[in-house]
Amino acid sequence: MSFPTIGAVASGHELTAAAAREVLEEGGNAFDAVVAAALMACVAEPVLCSLGGGGYLLAARRGAEPVVYDFFTDTPRTRGASEQIDLHPVDADFGSVTQEFHVGLGAVATPGMAAGLFEVHHDLCRLPMPRLAEPAARAARDGVLINRFHAYLFQVVAPIYLATPAARAIYGQDRAALPQEGQRFRQPDLAGAIELLAREGPGLLYGGELGQRLIEQCRQGGGQLALDDLAAYEVRRREPLEVRYRDARIFGNPPPSRGGMLIAFALALLAEAPVAGREQWLGALVQAMRLTDRARAEAGDPLLDRELLERYRAELGCVPGCDRGTTHISIVDGEGNLASASLSNGEGCGHVLEGAGIMLNNMLGEEDINPQGLQQWQPGTRMASMMAPTLVEQPGARAVLGSGGSKRIRSAILQVVTNLVALDMPLEDAVAAPRIHVEDGLLSVEGGFSPAEERVLAQSGLRIDRWSERNFFFGGVHVVRQQREALSAVGDPRRGGVGLALRSAPATS
Q1: Residue 136: alpha-carbon gap to chain centroid
Q2: CA-CA-CA-CA torsion for 451, 497, 6, 130, nearest 10 degrees?
């Protein structure tokens, strides 16, 4: 006996997916579920997501045109005096490479996460916010079992999460004490903050007690935020960027963010590419990525869609951006509503909001946010990102997807979209297929390509960096799909992804 599917969710952690499931089973819609899942991600995926960060939601209500909720971070309205700013470099050790990040209270941009979740709740949700917060608060208080992927992330960013006494009180006193695989990690202060926010609303952070505490912490410790920054913050509703690709309508994240635009350009280049052979297709994909990477560097390319380019060139401009530390949630409910949320906290700045357990973002610590240097960003500006929550509409099918992975977000999403639309792969195969990424003349090649495909890649004329197996470097695309009455979900194993398709219980007589 089969029962109707009531929803599907794909995310980067089993507890994030479980929070969405709990809400869907109680009668919530996709937007209730994505709010609950986002709150849970702040607990279960703490290096990637925080109430101190921001993100985007592409919301597609059944029968309505999609809309993007932009609740990413803003630069402060006034730059602090450089000699007073707490902004310093740390090295993150990825094992094979070390990368420098900038942290400290001077790296904190105006957070948008809480404002965005409450705005989505006001517009689209059914269940009360305290109910949606219950799974996250419960998990923060009872503890989350750390999995291998998140234990690894803690080691990568150890200098950040051990940077201050308040952070060490939560995460551990030294590298060996950071949350380890199999350990139960409790965050009681964060549990209380989530419950308090759910009861009192976003004003608690944007001018209320938590906001005043944040600003005082910045004032005393070398931060740049002021109460005016919190009071002026607004969630932006944007019309998605839309392109046609073969038989599909693709909706993505519009400027000032960059990811959706670059994906759209690459799809335009691939629109007529032949798909008769996998090797020939792979050659076209490399070329499209190479040209799109050039467009990224030059803010335009004559081979790309001129009308689309001119429409957004001015908006892309020199908007400061942050392209790191991201997770994603995709949800569809049984009514046909779809939600695609990409969320980020950078790496965190090393400081937590006192008494609330909220790791603050380090979005102003991105070296390339402005060519003139770290402190030359435009004040009071919505920051950009490579994050690209995406909706794919085909005859008889709709899917939402997105990815973490910094600058690899655009290539990961591009490849899953083309696998689904051009190559007609099953959903699981479309996510699992090996990936490539082109950046600055380097072709990164994931393990798993056939010898014939490897020969095509070797003829690209680019420098090649080969990986022996699937790796989180190539993103983590979490996708759900609705095909008439059937719902399916796939979480990307590269980043500990989980996919759940939920069925209702049988009726009782």
Answers
A1: 18
A2: -160
Strands (E), 105-197: 144-145, 184-185
- What is the three-class DSSP state of 157? coil
**168-176: which pairs have CB atoms within 8 A and are 24 or more residues apart?**
170/352, 170/357
DSSP-derived letter for residue 181 is: T
User: Looking at the whole model, is its pTM more than 0.90?
Assistant: yes
Nearest C-alpha neighbor of 386 from the set 242, 259, 497, 286: 259
**Calpha distance 136→194 (Å, rounded):** 8
Cα separation values, 485 from 247, 332, 481, Å: 20, 12, 10
d(CA 448, CA 201): 48
Residue 370 amino acid letter: N
Which amino acid, one-letter code, is at 215? I
The answer for residues whose C-beta is within 8 angstroms of residue 153's C-beta and 6 or more apart is 47, 48
pLDDT digits (tens, 9 = 90+) for 202-225: 999 999 999 999 999 999 999 999
Choose the weakest-confidence range: 29-38, 276-285, 385-394: 276-285
What is the number of other CB atoms lying within 10 angstroms of the CB of residue 5?
Answer: 18
Distance, in Å, from the CA atom of 305 to the CA atom of 376, rounded to the nearest integer, reads: 31
DSSP category for residue 64: S
pLDDT in tens, 119-169: 999 999 999 999 999 999 999 999 999 999 999 999 999 999 999 999 999
Do β-strands 88-93 and 98-103 pair in parallel, antiparallel, or remain unpaired? antiparallel
449 CB-near residues (< 8 Å, 6+ apart):
282, 434, 457
Which token pair is 195?
């419950």
Q: Is residue 292 flagged as an active site residue?
A: no
Tell whether omega for the bond before 320 is within 30 degrees of 0, i.e. cis: no
Report whether pLDDT(256) > 70: yes
From the centroid of its chain, how far is CA 211? Answer: 24
Alpha-carbon separation of residue 346 from 44, 307, 429 (angstroms): 16, 33, 30
Distance of CA 199 to the CA centre of its chain: 26
Q: Which residues contact 67 (CB under 8 A, 6 or more apart)?
A: 58, 59, 237, 238, 239, 240
Choosing from 326, 327, 390, 418, which is the catalytic residue?
326
